Amino acid sequence: MVISPKILESAGAVRKSYQPSEIIFNEGESPKYFYQIIYGSVKTNNYDESGKESIQNLLEEGDCFGETLLFLNRCYPMNAVAPTDCEILSLKKEKFIELVKSHPKFSFEINKCLSQKLYFKLIMAQNMCVQNPKTKLITLMNYLKSFENDDTRFSFLIPLTRQQMANLTGMCVETVIRTVKKLERNGELVIENGKILY
């Protein structure tokens, strides 16, 4: 957790439950809240002219989102959607700014969170310039596994569907499926019951 739920609620945060596919905010809206996930997951995304989804980030329990733009007068450049059932704490912008000002340690936690998101964006931006599908997937899987304590081979369950991997890397799902099978044949990952172990 970036900020304890009790502290957020004492500052005026409200819990809200979302169902799969429910929109939390839309691209083009003005940011009004700091969000933190109590349980479930959230994805931020965009759609191109043809309707193809591009996932910007996948967020899990304890992650915050929407905080970046609370320090700017800019509209959301992406959507936030609940891909699963989830519960989210939302704190109004003014209350969030007051909370950060009155508790400097939260500034440090927010900076850590922002730094992590920026790092992910830089890794994925570099990855988009790569043409080799294998390199794209290995980069993504290495990034995801980098947060685990156990770095032994095949110890990490990739928490993404093939479609999500495609959306994050800019590839089509068929290319991801073919590349994953090739990586399995080469002994670079294991597939058990459709799940990827890396």
TrEMBL record:
Record-linked InterPro entries: cNMP-bd_dom, cNMP-bd_dom_sf, Env_Response_Regulators, HTH_CRP, RmlC-like_jellyroll, WH-like_DNA-bd_sf, WH_DNA-bd_sf
Entry keywords, A to Z: DNA-binding, Transcription, Transcription regulation
Record keyword Transcription regulation present: yes
Transmembrane segments: none
Limits of the HTH crp-type domain: 131-198
Coiled coil (residue ranges): none
Keyword Transcription regulation: yes
Residue ranges occupied by any Cyclic nucleotide-binding domain in the UniProt entry: 16-100
Protein name: cAMP-binding domain of CRP or a regulatory subunit of cAMP-dependent protein kinases
Lineage, broadest ranks: Bacteria, Pseudomonadati, Bacteroidota, Flavobacteriia, Flavobacteriales
